[in-house]
Design brief:
CATH topology of the domain at 81-221 and 239-292: Rossmann fold
Strand content: 15-25%
Radius of gyration: 19 Å
Oligomer: single chain
Length: 294
Amino acid sequence: MPPASRYKAVCACAGRPASRSRVEALAAGPCPYDSCVPDFDPRTPSIARVYDYLLGGKDNFVADREAGDRVVAAFPAVVEAARENRQFLARAVTWVANQGVGQFIDLGCGMPTAPNTHETAQAVNRGARVAYVDNDEVVVSHLRAMGAKGSPGVTVVVGDVGNPDAILGDVFAGLDPAAPTCLMMGLLLHFYEPGTAVSLLARYCAALAPGSYVLISMAHGNGAEGERWFSAYSAGPAPARNYSVAEIAALFDGTELVPPGVVDARQWHPSWSELPALPFRTGQAICGVGRISS
């Protein structure tokens, strides 16, 4: 691994020399976008870049891949669960957009991954607007580069989602606070203790207009293997808590749950009258969508 001092800047724009990872290509001359990342240590794994690696992306460093490999060794199905989460997010955004919601706040959005939230929402409503929120330097670099290449309706907000007052102030500089909005917390809240997660969720939801929706997905492990999954992850990118399904469901208290309720990501589809039976697996993404009526 090259020493961190070599990484004077990381460029997310197109046309840079190819490598195994685009973010490992050093900026070569002036960047056409104001999206280069200042010095940082690429030897520290990142939540966003490990997730990118699990999804088969290339925007990650050796440290991220090594951390991801340790998680996969503890729970091989984590790759499937990550992809199932992305599929849930796309289905849920499509469904919410079809309810007439034209604004989305994607908290802790992570690295741009096709289909992105704005692409999914705008496939239903061409005028849909999305605020992406993250504090990872490389994620922000890629989001800004994406915007510079032409993504109408997209706002990039840099900040810690644990500071909702600051985030909401920046988000609603580009969105209408009086219009229904979809708040997205995809694989986010399991990085917080239950009390903190509840208070964060309540603060964000309190800022949303009636008729808004909240979309939540969280990783969940069953039994000893599931606990090993969380232990391996917590030893790498960041500490994560293994919420029970009941604890995840309780996060939707005060909202109107959209059928089929809080379920395995593979089962969430509002048009299904019966949930498909699933083979037992020791870990999965648990998800749900709730409507805020008042």
